[in-house]
Amino acid sequence: MQLTVLENLKKKNVDVYLEYLNSCKSSNWETWETTYKTYCNNFKLFLIWFQKSYKNKLLLSKETLLEMPTIMESYRNYCRSLGNSKRTLMNKTTSISTFYAWCVRRNKIKYHPFDSKLNRLRFTEKDKVRNSYFLTTEQILTVRLYMQVEAKKYDLQDRILWELFLDSACRISAIQNLKMEQLDLENGYFRDVKEKEGYIVNAFFFQKCKELIKEWIQYRTENEIDIDWFFVTKYGKIYKQMTQGAIRNRIRKLGKILGIEDLYPHTLRKTSINLINNLAGLGLASSYANHSSSGVTSKHYIQKTSATEIRNSIINARKKLGIF
Asked: What is the largest CA-CA distance in the chain?
């Protein structure tokens, strides 16, 4: 991964950041194409804005360091004017902060220029940008059957993506990076799948998905698709790895079958984990989700009980106590 050096960016600023990225790469190889790719892109956006707003200033000059809290506040306001969410703002701030923390450790500067000097952005449920859905079994089957009937509108990869996200509960980065060599068709899983924070897991799939994968393998053979990436897109005459954007677009297209305009792959992951929790309990659901603790699963992946259900439960408890 490289930071594209645009002609209008000051070379010294770009060079020091490339040095930082190279350092990170040596100790964060597993997350180099995920977490640090995001940091890289976010910092590039900051560099472009910084160059435009402050022209010839250097990132590590004494003058810049002194002004950095004000500079960061201006950058936050700029990002807000673009419509960035609070979560995006937090991520962009983190990408810049980690760079300066590294500079301190490497004795390039004596102190972090804005650590503990900015008002903290507090993220609450109200700040969620995406709607949260938990699909029902009926909705899952509706999409499956609709794709079978409307075979000309939905190809094999659409159908496999739907089943595999729900079967495996894997994140989009893991699904996108699946390779043919990882497939154990007979035993029903992809082995050595890289998940968030470098965890290596197995991506399980079941009978319906297995049948579709068999069809996909046959199709690839008949059409001479000789590429190791499991999910592919044809660019001209060349097959390449399917991008995450293309996968999201496919899932969004499937959501429209249900009248959901903003269905994301992560919704399928949450749905699958929630259904396992309902059937087999939080322990298995947390393990299935590859979470470090059941607390993460409970807080973010389990459908909350409605107010009506809570009230009815309280009524039943009161009746048992003789309180009517």
From this structure: 78
190: left (phi over 0), alpha (psi -120 to 50) or beta: beta
Give the C-alpha separation, 102 to 59, whole Å: 13
**What values do phi and psi take at 88, rounded to 5?**
-65, -40
Measured in whole angstroms, the distance separating CA 209 from the mean position of its chain's CA atoms is 23
Q: Are 324 and 318 in contact (CB under 8 A)?
A: yes
Phi-psi region of 198 (alpha: psi -120 to 50; beta: other; left: phi over 0): left
The total of other beta-carbon atoms located within 10 Å of residue 273's CB is 25
Cα 89 to Cα 317: distance, rounded to the nearest angstrom: 45
Tell me the two tokens of residue 217: 């393998």
- Per DSSP bridges, beta strands 200-204 and 189-194 are antiparallel
Distances from the Cα of 55 to the Cαs of 9, 47, 95, 218, 242, in angstroms?
9, 10, 21, 57, 38
Alpha-carbon span 83 to 153, nearest angstrom: 34
Q: What is the mean pLDDT of each run of 10 residues along the chain (324 residues)?
A: 57 87 76 65 88 89 95 94 86 90 94 88 57 83 93 95 92 92 93 80 90 96 94 92 93 94 89 79 67 58 60 64 57
- Report the residue count for the chain: 324
Compute the distance between CA of residue 33 and CA of residue 28 in angstroms, rounded to an integer: 10
According to DSSP, the residues that pair with 183 across neighbouring strands are 190
Q: For residues 155 and 151, what is the distance between their CA atoms, to the nearest angstrom?
A: 7
Residue keyed to tokens 């991506």: 203
From CA 288, how far away is CA 305, in angstroms rounded?
21
Our separate counts of H helices and E strands in the chain read 13, 5
